[in-house]
Amino acid sequence: MRIKYLYLLIILITSCTSLSKSKSPSYCSFPENSPYPGGLINYSLNTERKYLEKNLRVKDLEFSICKEQGSPKSLLIPIPLTFEEDRVSIFFSDQLISSIDIESRDYRESRITISNQDFVSPPNAMLERIKEEYSQSISAKNVFNLKKNTSKEMIIPLEGIMSSEYGVKRFINGKPRNRHSGLDIAAAEGSPIFAPLSGKVILAGNFFYKGNVIFIDHGNGLVSSYSHLSKKLVDVNQIITTGDNIGFVGSTGRVTGPHLHWEVYFLGIPINPVIFIKN
């Protein structure tokens, strides 16, 4: 009788273990599919196709293949905020394998007034500095370091009020400017800012527009930046973990008040940080 019960118990434990494994979330399933300008397409791949990586292409857009245990699982496609097509086509060689509809987004307008005219029309003496800082920013957000099974799930870097969401159509002193490519979180001067995800600091400095700024490489084309800090607590090449205090809220650079300007880039494309926040 005891042997019979032991046999049943082994079957039950084995079944539960198998069930647990089958329900474990896929690393490549996050972030969820968000097919809109400023979002990210997460398309499940048919791994039975041979030479998948060499033959996949997406018209006019950057993409990355997410792998699990060396096997391609999904296609990640960042959609630029300025993308105007109504669908994205995915090809295997010359064969169309999927056409994904792009959802429309109605981003609001934001009109702000900057009293310091140097931040509206910079003097000639500042133009070379601005050009160099822009070049450094472009290089940082396009960094791609391959890492295996690196999490993309982020925590919120700052507790505060969302003062300006991603994608806003900005007007400064009545004139149209570039779209808002990040998320603004307002908080008291000196509030701590935390790393939302582990990574490596690849750029830290004091920029004309961004003020005190930090760029972090999270691996596999995922980079984030933090602007207008009152003080930075990390240096270039420093390895950080999720939740580390990296700096404090400030009002350096071109601002109207103390806040964090948080940007997330994937394959060099600034996309909505919200889609990377788990729960």
Please tell me about this protein's structure.
This protein has helices at residues 2-23, 52-55, 124-141, and strands spanning 40-44, 56-58, 64-68, 71-78, 87-92, 95-101, 109-112, 161-164, 169-172, 175-176, 183-186, 192-194, 199-207, 211-219, 222-232, 239-240, 245-249, 259-266, 269-271. By secondary structure, it is α+β, with helices and mostly antiparallel strands. It folds into two domains: 22-101, Immunoglobulin-like (Sandwich), CATH 2.60.40; 109-276, Distorted Sandwich (Glucose Permease (Domain IIA)). Strands 8, 11, 12, 13, 14, 15, 16, 17, 18 and 19 form a ten-stranded antiparallel beta sheet that branches. A three-stranded antiparallel beta sheet has the order 1-4-3, with no helix packed on it. The protein is globular, with a radius of gyration of 22 Å.
Quick structural gist:
By secondary structure, this protein is of the alpha+beta class. The chain folds into 2 domains: 22-101, Immunoglobulin-like, CATH 2.60.40; 109-276, Glucose Permease (Domain IIA) (Distorted Sandwich), CATH 2.70.70. It has helices at 2-23, 52-55, 124-141, and strands spanning 40-44, 56-58, 64-68, 71-78, 87-92, 95-101, 109-112, 161-164, 169-172, 175-176, 183-186, 192-194, 199-207, 211-219, 222-232, 239-240, 245-249, 259-266, 269-271.
